[in-house]
Write a structure and sequence with these properties.
The chain is mainly alpha-helical. It folds into two domains: 61 residues, no CATH class; 51 residues, no CATH class. It is 27% helix and 7% strand. The protein is built from five helices and four strands; from the N terminus they run H-E-H-E-E-E-H-H-H. The protein has a two-stranded antiparallel sheet. Helix 1 packs antiparallel against helix 3.
Amino acid sequence: MAKTGLPPWLLASIKHLASLHNPEFYQRQKLRLSTWQTPRFVRCYSEDLSHLHLPRGVLEPLRTLLESAGSRLDLADHRPMPAPLPARLQLKPSGVVDLAMIQASPASLPATWWRCLGATAWSWSTSATTYPRSRSSPACATRLSATSWG
């Protein structure tokens, strides 16, 4: 963004948009430590003699600020646009049932699984798909997989 022609108050407001409070400064101030050479704000912009280089995340707040100042933002994007890649999304089942899938649709579990799991809370091991065997039903499998749903 060119700095020429911008009033100082607007330039300061734009710089403030692209700055963040430095939590390290406030932590040191709270602990009554020296804040010398610890900036109060983290600058997320860079500037040279003629331009102010802003991050992309301030585009909408910048547009709002300039509209409230009675101006408008003309944006020209000179980045090259790559051609889209010829790709298709192919989903394959992984073979393992996720806990979120079980919790989302408990009615879809076969009745034999509910007998195996019982009404008690499930105890999980390090693998998120491994269940302990039920003492009352030794025929229950210890791992749910997509092939056992059927």
